[in-house]
Amino acid sequence: MNQEKRKAIFDRLARAIPDPTTELNYRTPFELLIAVVLSAQATDKGVNKATAKLFAVASTPQAILALGEQGLKEHIKSIGLFNTKAANIIKLCQLLMEKHDGRVPETREQLEALPGVGRKTANVILNTAFGQHTIAVDTHIFRVANRTRLAPGKTVLEVEKKLDKWVPAAHKKDAHHLLILHGRYTCIARKPRCQSCVIEDLCEYREKNIP
Fold this sequence. Notes:
Layout: H1 3-16, H2 29-38, H3 44-57, H4 61-76, H5 82-100, H6 108-112, H7 119-129, H8 139-148, H9 156-166, H10 175-185
Helix pairs in contact: 2-7, 3-4, 4-5, 8-10
């Protein structure tokens, strides 16, 4: 796939999805960080349901520490792996208070030093909370990048590096959410909705789902 076709793909996705953003509900960088940590192996809908109640009573590191690990578990027990996530969130909040005055740091290194925060989560925070041109490759983006041949790769990091290199500058900030939303609602895993896809003629997938 050449760069001209990549630009056309992102131009069309941008027109089709005029306000690409996360479907996690949040008001502050800290709330987003907690929501993303909770979203591992969970749906955004499930996370939003839990955080609506959690953030109503604890939306800062201090408030979550005041809840304690058991108190936190009561609010997030509907989410998978809630025991591990609760432990990580408590440690994360302690580090934010000790090293960052309670604020979410704005560098990858500092974010990845927080418990429960890996490269993907750090990329989400940098992009969504702070507007940096990072692309967090989740299962949707990995699938879309490989299926369309937009940025094929065998590993998440390989796909991320290719996207970082090849996404047109004008779309760098929104590429993350454009690809996620396209993968979530159109280029779905089992039967991609090729008939209603705005980039169907540009996509290089050989087994398109067209009768």
